[in-house]
Amino acid sequence: MISLILVGFIAALLASALLIRWVRSHAEHYDHDKPQRFHAGAVPRLGGLGVLVGMLVSWAVAAWSSSEDGLLNTRLNWAVAGAWAVVVVPAVFGGAYEDVTQHLAVRYRLVLTALSAALACLLLGVNLSRLALPGIDAVLLAVPWLGIALAILAICGLPHAFNIIDGYNGLAGTVALLIGLALAHVALQVGDRQLAAVVLCMVGATAGFLVWNYPRGLIFAGDGGAYLWGVVIAVASIALVQRHSQVSPWFPMLLLIYPVWETVFSIYRKLARGVSPGVADALHFHQLIYRRIVRGVFHDDISRRMLMRNNRTSPYLWGFTLLTVVPAVLFWNNTPILMLCCALFAAFYVMSYLMLVRFKVPRWLRR
After folding, report:
1. Which residues span the domain enclosing 63?
2. Measured over all CA atoms, what is the biggest interatomic distance in the chain, rounded to whole angstroms?
3. Average pLDDT rounded to a whole number, residues 45-74
């Protein structure tokens, strides 16, 4: 498995380096007045394609090794690897097109992520057949198409959740890496080497991209990268729960509660203000961390000051993510504890958000 991570890492590292060298010109036309922009200069936003290349190469190596000599013993054959590639491509290329042109409407990107979700149900057979909720699981078993509809909704929604938290160097990429490692760990615990191999290929490719993304910010993942992480993680999460009854459905829920709750809360606060949920703003949790906790650094160069302040924001959110990843890994088969942790996180998030909005941040945090 480590060899797959290394293959994905090297392939994504080289692909991202080429993208930095040859596609920077498109970033010169990126709007400078967008509320979610917290960097200076023209930075290419096609890092998602670099991650895609690294992941596809490592999937191909895994499939070749399994079919030829079985050295890796991943059970990831060419048919399964090809199905995963077909599932991921529509969402990633839709996001990449938006990164280059800035003219692909949200509804069309939703259609493309929904297409990826439908292909996952068709080619990989994913189905959200249980939620560990009294009465609801019986309904899902009696009405199979309802489980498929829920799976499509989850796979379609998570890429956009990752896109929301993709605001600072290394933030979304490291969150995806931590979640991927947790999924792979539990997959190996239950003996699912195929699913673990799929996710670890994504982890290796993400690590290769992060070399250029953090801390220097030489390339961004863009919508394409966020959609890739969202689709792969959502499909892997549903497949893990579907294949192994000992894995609680609330394990992936707790793993993903940060981007999911960020999305739900953002929709709520925008509707409460009479604003469309599709309108971008600068009031997400990570943006408040940037404004209210991370202080400016003292350098004469404005671009360098903004970059360093940007880089100092992400570690706060990495720690925030570990608050959910650690208990999820420890109690992956204990539904009551996982549900309690989800509720506690939601309450903690809301209290923290209100604290930031009302300028009541403890002094020891403002460094």
Report:
1. 2-365
2. 65
3. 83
Q: Output the DSSP codes for 126-162.
A: ------S-TTHHHHHHH-HHHHHHHHHHHHHHHHHHH
Domain count of the fold of the chain: 1
Query: pLDDT tens-digit profile of 137-196?
Result: 889 888 889 999 999 999 999 999 999 888 788 888 999 999 999 999 999 999 999 999
Residues 6+ away with beta carbon under 8 Å from 327: 254, 337, 338, 341
HSE toward the beta carbon, residue 219, CA cutoff 13 A: 30
Instruction: Tell me the C-alpha distance between 217 and 56, whole Å.
Output: 24
What are the two backbone dihedrals, phi and then psi, of residue 216, each rounded to the nearest 5 degrees?
-80, -20
> Are the beta carbons of 9 and 53 closer than 8 angstroms?
no
* Alpha-carbon span 12 to 4, nearest angstrom: 12
Give the C-alpha separation, 100 to 108, whole Å.
Answer: 15
CA-CA distances (angstroms) from residue 317 to 246, 278, 324, 364?
Answer: 30, 23, 11, 16
pLDDT in tens, 267-300: 888 777 777 776 776 677 667 777 666 754 444 4
For 16, the token pair is 């991202």
151-168: pLDDT as tens digits: 999 999 999 999 988 878
CA atoms within 13 A on the CB side of 13: 10
* Residue 336: Cβ-neighbour burial (10 angstroms; 0-12, 13-18, 19+): exposed
Whether pTM > 0.85 for this model: the answer is: yes
Rounded CA-CA distance 213/218 in Å is 6
Residues contacting 87, CB < 8 A, separation 6+:
116, 119, 120, 123, 124, 231, 235
DSSP H stretches of helix in the chain: 2-22, 47-68, 78-101, 106-123, 136-142, 144-165, 171-189, 193-213, 222-243, 250-255, 257-272, 285-292, 302-330, 335-357
